[in-house]
Amino acid sequence: MLIKGYDFGPLVPGESLLLHPGFWSNYLLAMCSDGGYAERPVPEWFGEDGADADAMYEVLFDPEHWPVFRMPAEDGPGAVVIYRNLDGDYGTDYLLTHPDRSYAQQIASWDGDFSGLTWHELIRIADSPFLTDEGVQDTATRFLLLLPLLTDPNVPDTASARLMTALTAVGAPQDTASPAAEHLLAHLTRRSGHDPAWTSPLSGS
Question: pTM of this prediction?
Answer without folding.
Answer: 0.88
